[in-house]
Amino acid sequence: MLIELRGVAARIGGTVILREVDLDVAAGEAVALYGPNGAGKTTVLRILATLLPSSAGTVHVLGCDLTGDGRFDVRGRIGLIGHTPALYPELSIRANLQYVADVTGVEPSQVDKVLETVGLAGAADRPVEAASHGMARRCEIARELMLQPDLLLLDEPHSALDESAVALVAHLVESVTAAGGCAVVASHDRIQVDRLTDRQVLLESGVIS
Ligand code: ADP
Ligand code: MG
Fold it and tell me: In what order do the strands lie in the sheet with 207-208?
């Protein structure tokens, strides 16, 4: 299993956000986490991404126990596309990817290749702050295509995306799972994520049913 959550709880400021969450995701698998707004989907992704410690239970991700110092070893193998773009607004779309390629040791020629794949070759010199939300999303898809994480986490990936970009999300999920990684896709819209994933898990009021 690439993900093993057992009895995971999250409490933030006295409020219980997740309780007794169990989740297994195998290599090669894409799982949807769906449920209404406020259910706790983003919180699960933040725990998986090593950004938030669980308040109880055990969290194993990519063979590491995230409740220990292991989280620092796996962080670089986890790709997250969250609600808001994790990009440098003042840098161009291309410069954002060049920077990531530089610090991760990815071959620089990959940058223009993935920009082409996501249809941003013509907009590559535009600063991210002058790009649309959909373009920023495409830039993040390009980044993850380039990095090929072992664990891909997508939070409401269909927001701000047109049909052709939705196909790119599917392409990204497939490239990660085909390489033996796994993906967890959070969405309030089960129909959108159905076709992207092998299995769908319902999260409601912090509980998986
Ligand atoms: P979802 O992604 O399913 O919409 P979230 O994981 O964002 O749900 O949030 C679940 C619940 O936890 C919501 O009620 C939200 O208001 C609350 N919550 C999330 N983050 C925090 C925080 N940092 N502090 C307090 N409450 C939070
Ligand atoms: Mg959310």
Answer: 78-81, 151-155, 182-187, 30-34, 199-204, 207-208
pTM here is 0.96
Q: Which of 15, 17, 203 is the pocket-test mutation for ligand 1 (most atoms within 8 Å of CB)? A: 17
pLDDT (tens digit, 9 = 90+) per residue, 82-112?
A: 988 999 999 999 999 999 999 999 999 999 9
State both tokens at 11: 């409490």
Pocket of ligand 1 contains residue 187 by CB under 6 Å: no
- Other Cβ atoms less than 10 A from the Cβ of 36: the count is 11
Separation CA 86–CA 158 (nearest Å): 16
Asked if residue 140 lies in contact with residue 81, where contact means CB atoms within 8 angstroms, the answer is yes
Residues in the 5 Å CB sphere of ion ligand 2:
41-42
Q: What is the pLDDT of residues 164-178, one digit of tens each?
A: 889 999 999 999 999
H helices of the chain, in order, are 41-48, 71-74, 93-104, 109-117, 133-147, 163-178, 190-194
CA–centroid distance, 38 to ligand 2, in Å, is: 7
The number of C-alpha atoms within 13 Å of 89 and in the hemisphere containing its C-beta is 6
> Could you tell which of 8, 11, 12 is best to mutate to test the pocket of ligand 1, judged by most ligand atoms within 8 Å of the CB?
12
Site of tokens 């790119």: 168
